[in-house]
Design goal:
- The chain is 14% helix and 31% strand.
- The chain has helices at residues 20-23, 25-44, 52-58, 106-112, 343-356; strands at 63-68, 80-86, 92-96, 118-123, 133-135, 155-158, 161-164, 166-169, 174-176, 189-196, 207-211, 224-229, 236-237, 243-247, 252-253, 259-260, 270-278, 281-288, 295-301, 314-317, 328-338.
- The protein is globular and about 55 Å long.
- The two termini are 23 Å apart.
- Mean pLDDT is 90; it is low at 1-47.
Length: 360
Amino acid sequence: QLPCHHKTPTPTHSLGSGSIGQLYPSTMRLCLALFIVVVYVCASCVVEAEGPCDIYAAGGTPCVAAHSLTRALFAAYNGPLYQVQRASDKTTTDVGVVAAGGVVNAVTQDTFCAQTSCTVQRIYDQSNRSNHLDLAPPGGAAHHSDVGTNATRTRTTLGGKPAYAAVFEGGMGYRNDKTSGIATGDEPESMYMVVSGTHYNNKCCFDYGNAETDAIDHGAGTMEAIYWGTCGGWGHGGGDGPWVMADLENGLWAGDARVNPGNMPIQADFVTAMVKGRAGGFSLKGGNAQQGPLTTLFDGPRPNHYNPMKKQGAIILGIGGDNSNWAVGTFFEGVITSGFASNATDDAVQANIVAAGYGK
């Protein structure tokens, strides 16, 4: 916005033998100039919006990984969100935000990928841990490297601004096996992801979270990741899904038993899915990412054979811990924290997601 234009008024009030403007014309001009400068600066400044990771930090559970294709997750973040590679010449470019704490600058991708196709090669970690996600290597389940998601497959809006997503369609996945700050053993952690509520299947495994460091299945308790979909072979919630469940390795858990009728499907265009792990127990929450609060789907003890946990601290997205890469899903943003977040923090994060304006 341009500042309002101001015209110096003709003095009409007198003080003694003359007006202030008549007695001190240079002072009046200086004050007017300063006023215009202040108005211009205030009209031009950008206020950084609080991000989910600012909320987690205030709650004592700081983000140790923060990944998003749609927006900054810290108020002060002004770096790249993800990297795309175009098919025509195999060159790459980073896609960042429009301003610190803001939404993605989708024009960068639109311009770079015009007249060709692009894939997402890397999703940057916005925390200071450099836990970036790159294309996943071969693993014990799928013995080939994964490919990147189509960068232009899904276009949405965030607060009225255009944005894209990581759309997994099988054979696609991202991973970081050499991380910093991610929980290991039985250490507590919290995580959430925002996903499409209408894109899923019953295959393994559309996950985001903590996994093995060598893409090999090391048994019960060596993972702790969020799962979204209708895969019910190991366990499931009530109804027909899709469900928010925890992938704890060798099992998708909707609670501490194979079936948890209280973990009901979430029907929404955009879904917030959350898993929190602590010594001896874990919590599952979910909700509509466009409106309303989170629902607690489970909060209780670990399943048999999963206590204590043996988490290894890698990060996966779109795949299982052993590179099981047959699931589909659409990822917009997600974080992993150090520590078990409070319910008040969970609620504040959900309110922040809703306020971001997915699909609006």
